[in-house]
Amino acid sequence: MAIESEVLVVGGGLAGLTGALSAARAGADVRLVSYKQSTLRNASGLVDVLGYTPDGDGPLVDPYAAIPDLPERHPYRTVGVDGVREAMALFDDVAPDYRGGHTDANALLPTHGGTIKPTARYPAGASAGLASDDRDVLLVGIAGMVDFDATHAAAHLEAAGVPFDVRGVTIEFPGTLDAKAKVTRYAKLLDTNGKVAVRGRERPARDALAERVNTELAGEGRVGFPAVLGDDDAAGVRAALRERLGADVFEVPMGPPSLPGLRLEDALFAALDEAGASFETGNPVVDYDGDGHIERVYVEKNGAKIPYSADQYVLATGGLVGKGVESDREAVYEPIFDCHVPHAADRYDWFDTEAFGDHAFARFGVSTDDDLRPEDAGGNVEFENLRAAGAVLGGYDFAAEKSGSGVSIATGYAAGRTAAQEAR
Amino acid sequence: MASVPHIAVIGGGSTGTGIARDLAMRGLDVTLVEQGNLTHGTTGRMHGLLHSGGRYAVSDQASATECIEENRVLRDIASHCVEMTGGLFVKRPEDSEEYFQEKLRGCEACDIPAEVVSNSEARAMEPHLAKDVDKAISVPDGAVDPFRLVVANAASAREHGARIETHSTVTDLLVEDGEVVGVEVDHASGSGVRVHGTEGGTEEIRADYVVNATGAWAGRIGDMAGVDIEVRPSKGVMTIMNTRQVDTVINRCRPKGDADIIVPHETTAILGTTDEEVEDPEDYPEEQWEVDMMIDTLSELVPMLADARTIRSFWGVRPLYEPPDVGSTDPTDITRDYFLLDHEERDDLHGMTSIVGGKFTTYRMMGEEISDHVCAQFGIDADCRTAEVPLPGSEDFSVLRDYMDEFGLRSPIGRRSVERLGSRADEVLKTSEPNPTVCECEGVTRAEIQDAIEGSGSDLNAVRIRTRASMGNCQGGFCCHRMASELHGEYDEQTTRAAWDELLQERWKGQRHALWGEQLSQAMLNYALHATTQNRDRDPADGEPVDFAAFDGGSGQAGGPARSGVATDGGDDGGD
């Protein structure tokens, strides 16, 4: 006996979660299985749709307007502009703490390295940091936190020509945190408003932090911190700081481990739970039965292979980073179903000589038909009941285009919805 | 003696800095010029083997004898740069027994401590050796950090009054009346410790004598004065593994051949190498088959290498030289010995000597010999002290104190910092400021980075070679921007950005030869972090002005510009 469902989604990142949500909302009995921590912990938490064209034009003001001109094999062409819009509407619905849905225009957000980047949706916590806002900014760095140097970021933002004055200061976080405390440690302390020792006196962390920043504030209308301002009660932390500083407060998105990325993951799992789907994490899908039609897949648990069967399957295992696409010295492959991954035979053709050159590896992934079903080298559908979504798809360079989240959401949405329809 | 002679040394590798240190310690006035970073050429592109001499014990016993002598000296004067791993010459069943015995006799003849170990003894030392190896010869090979060693030599030279100019390319030799009287250099930017972003310029450095220690580049310097120096550059590939599969240097015990050595080096193991003559020391092919051969051939000795993760590969060029009448056709036949070419004797050109050939392990001995030679030109009778006086960092390294508690560092990081810094640990790590880890793969803290910046200016690649930051598993994916931030403050944003870009590009260069499996995934993650999260590939600071007003100005409900006043209730930001 296999564990049965109508739609089985393999992968728990943005594409898998969106796929499962859209299938569940379309009325299907959905199960999601995922192996490792999702790569959302690596992501900044910003949700990009399209920031630049494949030719490098941009930053684009309107991502939707640029979609019809993308290369034919681009996943956005497969799902179409309307498909992207519908998917983003689903995202807006399940991620109420995100902003940007009021307009088609991209937002420009400061990054922790001091650049700005175009993005379509941003956490509420980042919204006061918009670079098109002309209020002056004070960036606050924390002495032991090497990922965000406020002074450097401020100077870099000025070089990028932002329409406001920006200044950076570095403070020591009140209390005696380890020189290299984890971001979650700061977040927890602020969440609970725990006591910290300041000059021998115990003070609530939020007050102590605000007092330290207050002495640095010189009339700026908003203050940016690294993204450590709480986890469970991020809004409360920001509100408390805002009140005590008399200025708007925002978080600057950071690299891994990224609290905004983890918060988004939590929100989507909560929505999935609410939609009635089941999910389990921590065990890999290692094998399948079927020829042209997937009968069942096998999940490895403590050495045993447990069968899971479904009518329809969604492959959302990620790209090279998430290990949905793997490689060795000779070849690039998709490890679960061995779907075809187009690549040059010579691995020296997989990359460009420049660090930010035109890397073929960045576009590695399965290619699909118009219904997101992976195709073999001859252009034939590999399994009639398997659809692929997100970074496991090939043919686009999400890093250069700033399109990773949008493609995951749009293709996850389309794959999940179609899978649900087929399963009915 | 009327005045102290001024010697210009060309070349900032091990030989050049070794010479500069020696001459400076003898009281001469020295200026060293180097076209790139210290170690920019061959020295920075070797496998880090401190030869016992065993490698040459059959083919080149003169070199072998020098190696074991200098091996002993470096353990003494450069203890913070050396790890005495020991080495094995491993014989597989298909390798010749005759050669094995010859190797053993050769080691004895050259006074290299050598001992035969059985299969089981060898595998007890190195459990990942192939099960079917016959036996091995154990020798005192070691690993040495060429960057640290060269920097220490340069620092010592400077302490003795030398001027060290990096990023200063020699564009001409000044020749007057058949005599070399100096060099013309082009400073890439600024003089003194390299300063990015200030105007560079040409400088004539007049000298009483010039030493050409440019290794594989020696012919180019010779050309500037119309003398012929027939260096025969020979390339070799080295592939870096992400962990140490072995803790002992593993050599294949057979006459010669490519891909026959594994050197454990810091957190990595380095596979080497090939030996192939090239025309141009700067422009030669770097090919896939060379990397594949390293992995395939060396897996015969250590099978797990076949599936292990490599993090990058790099190539170096040996500055091989043989006297004109020998005429070897195979570069592996060319002696590893070094030669002083006195251009007065040889070419009737006064005032310059070139030093060519040789090996990293004997750099100090080469420095001693050429310094003797230079002193002789001026009738100076000053003793060489470089074999006795420890290098900066190694003065008091015999007692490794427990710095971990003292500096509040986590133990592995503290240990590694102290190993890198040696006796300078106190001076560098004693700071009242927070000292977080900047590079997690290699355990490099802010204090070390700041110390390196102080020593090398605004060149993050120079900071890298001094500290090893960005040289671990992630190849800079997580720390390049942090290193840039450490630079900022001392240097302006534009200078910092240029150094940051240079570092990213340099880190990318070697990774290209490791792009499959785990490292390809890592490369994609790095690319995503730099391009997606940071938008460094389309950095608006480098591009056209952005029309900010055209973009989303906020919804007017979530703290955007349309809202005025200060919410006190958490407002619409609520919910997350």
Please describe what this structure looks like.
The complex is a heterodimer of chains A (424) and B (576). Chain A has 424 residues and is an alpha/beta fold. Chain A is 28% helix and 22% strand. Chain A is built from ten helices and 19 strands. In chain A, the strands form six sheets. In chain A, strands 1, 2, 13, 14, 15, 16 and 19 form a seven-stranded mixed sheet that branches. Chain A has a four-stranded parallel sheet with strand order 8-7-11-12. In chain A, strands 3-6 form a two-stranded antiparallel sheet. The longest helix of chain A has 20 residues, at 75-94. With 576 residues, chain B is an alpha+beta fold. Chain B contains 17 helices and 23 strands. In chain B, helix 1 (14-25) runs parallel beside helix 5 (146-159), helix 13 packs across helix 14 and helix 15 packs antiparallel against helix 16. The longest helix of chain B is centred in the C-terminal third of the chain and has 19 residues, at 493-511. Chain B is globular and about 85 Å long. At the A-B interface, strand 5, helix 4, helix 7, strand 17 and helix 9 of A face helix 7, helix 15, helix 16 and helix 17 of B.
Outline the secondary-structure elements.
The complex is a heterodimer of chains A (424) and B (576).
Chain A: E1 3-10, H1 14-25, E2 30-34, H2 63-66, H3 75-94, E3 98-99, E4 107-110, E5 116-119, E6 122-123, E7 137-142, H4 150-159, E8 166-171, H5 183-191, E9 195-198, E10 201-204, H6 205-214, E11 222-226, H7 234-245, E12 248-252, H8 259-274, E13 278-281, E14 285-290, E15 294-301, E16 304-315, E17 326-327, E18 332-333, E19 386-388, H9 398-401, H10 404-423
Parallel strand pairs in A: 1-2, 1-16, 2-13, 7-8, 7-11, 11-12, 16-19
Antiparallel strand pairs in A: 3-6, 4-5, 9-10, 14-15, 15-16, 17-18
Helix pairs in contact in A: 1-8, 1-10, 3-10, 6-7
Chain B: E1 6-10, H1 14-25, E2 29-33, E3 49-50, H2 61-77, E4 82-83, E5 87-91, H3 97-109, E6 115-118, H4 119-125, E7 135-139, E8 142-144, H5 146-159, E9 163-165, E10 168-176, E11 179-187, E12 201-206, E13 209-212, H6 218-224, E14 232-241, E15 249-252, E16 261-265, E17 268-272, E18 276-277, H7 288-298, E19 310-320, E20 338-342, H8 343-347, E21 352-357, H9 363-377, H10 403-407, H11 411-421, H12 425-429, E22 437-439, E23 444-445, H13 446-456, H14 460-467, H15 480-487, H16 493-511, H17 517-533
Parallel strand pairs in B: 1-2, 1-13, 2-9, 5-15, 13-21
Antiparallel strand pairs in B: 3-8, 4-8, 5-7, 6-7, 10-11, 11-12, 14-17, 14-18, 14-19, 15-16, 16-17, 20-21, 22-23
